[in-house]
Design a protein that fits this description.
By secondary structure, the protein is an alpha/beta fold. It folds into two domains: 33-156 and 246-287, Bacterial extracellular solute-binding protein, family 7 (D-Maltodextrin-Binding Protein, domain 2, 3-Layer(aba) Sandwich); 163-243 and 300-347, Bacterial extracellular solute-binding protein, family 7 (D-Maltodextrin-Binding Protein, domain 2, 3-Layer(aba) Sandwich). 50% of the residues lie in helices and 13% in strands. A six-stranded mixed sheet has the order 7-6-8-5-9-11, with helices on one face. It has a five-stranded mixed sheet with strand order 2-1-3-10-4, sandwiched between helices. β6, α6 and β7 form a beta-alpha-beta unit. α2 runs antiparallel to α11 (263-297) and α8 packs across α11 (263-297).
Length: 372
């Protein structure tokens, strides 16, 4: 076999290489990053906005330049409570917030955050959402509102405090007439308990407290409360509550925009949500612990919410869900689904989970001094 390359053959090979280069060069040159503009419902300084950026970074890192999500703080494009409409219309490509902020559009939406969730903790509520039918119900509610969005729920929040008060609340009667901030169905709960409720966005709470427009408020956790300035205007915080004991975050996408992405990038988004959920849980424990300690050092007084108030919350909740369920078929549908999931999941948790308080007290509770 003759292995010598003739001049004519060399010319043909060279021409083929040039042609191939001409074909591939435009493809490389025209490859572009898909940029998505998000807005959170949180002030830029809040840890919740940090969580939104954490999610975006996970997507951006895994997408390797093919997709970039930019997250703007609350109010950059629209007010916090208008996020859902903005994402639906395509004014924003997506957003980060909580489902309870859409409560005014359908009361059933608040069931993903407000109330005791039949005794489920926030991680169990997410289990119900992802595996017990909650996701399909949320999609049904958004479709009924003609909201062309895709919703991802993630990030189980620790139990939220009862609230910050200028004077500690020791019994239910002291709630009567208190001007108080909360959101979602907690508005109904505290109203039933006698408070005058004002559902302000997160960034407006502390200024309202400072000006005396409200007497008390709840937001979420030690870190956010400290960053937002609660300890600068109020010195008493009541811990433990059923008003929002099972809440989680929501990541929204404009459905049309999301569906234009290739399957690879949609998968990256799916798994980034799951990764961000775990990471947020760990970060919340770490940061909330540190800020709780700092708040106590600074002179903030923390009180356990009396059991009588907790029981009053549950009694109010019974009335709320009965009324809302009779008025709204979707509300009842969500409620029935949660109840069916909680009765089994709750029994499993009660039977299987050890009492961690017993172990903590064993190692850290002060031992009684021996008798002389």
């Amino acid at each position: 076999m003759n292995t010598t390359t003739t001049p004519r053959r060399r010319s043909l090979l060279k021409g083929a290489a040039i042609a191939a280069g001409a074909m591939t060069a435009p493809m490389i040159a025209t490859a572009q990053t898909v940029s998505l503009r998000f807005q959170s419902t949180w002030p830029a300084k809040d840890i919740f906005h940090e969580y939104a950026n954490d999610f975006a970074k996970k997507v951006n890192d895994m997408a390797s330049g093919k997709l970039k999500i930019e997250v703007l703080p609350s109010g950059s494009v629209v007010p916090a409570f208008q996020l859902l409409e903005a994402v639906n219309k395509g004014t924003l490509d997506g957003g980060h917030g909580v489902v309870a902020y859409h409560y005014g559009k359908n009361s059933a939406l608040a069931l993903w955050g407000s109330g005791p969730a039949f005794g489920m903790d926030p991680n169990m509520v997410l289990a119900w959402h992802n595996y017990g039918g909650g996701k399909a119900l949320l999609e049904e509610i958004y479709a009924s509102l003609s909201m062309d969005v895709v919703s991802y729920l993630y990030g189980p929040m620790p139990t939220q405090p009862f609230g910050w008060f200028k004077k500690p609340i020791s019994n239910v009667s002291q709630m009567k007439g208190v001007k108080f901030r909360t959101v979602g169905l907690a508005v109904d709960m505290y109203t039933d308990m006698g408070a005058a409720v004002n559902p302000l966005p997160g960034g407006e709470i502390v200024p309202a407290l400072d000006r005396g427009l409200i007497d008390g408020a709840e937001f979420n956790n030690a870190t956010s409360d400290r960053i937002l300035g609660f300890p600068d205007v109020v010195k008493n915080c009541m811990l433990q509550s059923f008003h929002q004991s099972g809440e989680q975050f929501e990541i929204l996408f404009n459905k049309t925009k999301l569906n234009t992405l290739p399957a690879e990038l949609r998968s990256i988004i799916d798994y980034s949500v799951q990764a961000a959920s775990a990471d947020m849980s760990w970060k919340a424990i770490d940061r909330n612990t540190k800020d709780y300690i700092e708040l106590k050092k600074s002179g903030i007084k923390f009180f356990k919410t009396p059991d009588a108030i907790l029981k009053a919350q549950l009694a109010s909740w019974d009335k709320i869900i009965q009324k809302k369920g009779s008025e709204n078929a979707l509300f009842k549908k969500v409620l029935d689904s949660q109840r069916a999931y909680a009765i089994n999941a709750g029994q499993w948790q009660r039977d299987y989970m050890v009492d961690f308080k017993m172990a903590y007290d064993h190692f850290f509770a002060k031992k009684a001094a021996p008798k002389a």
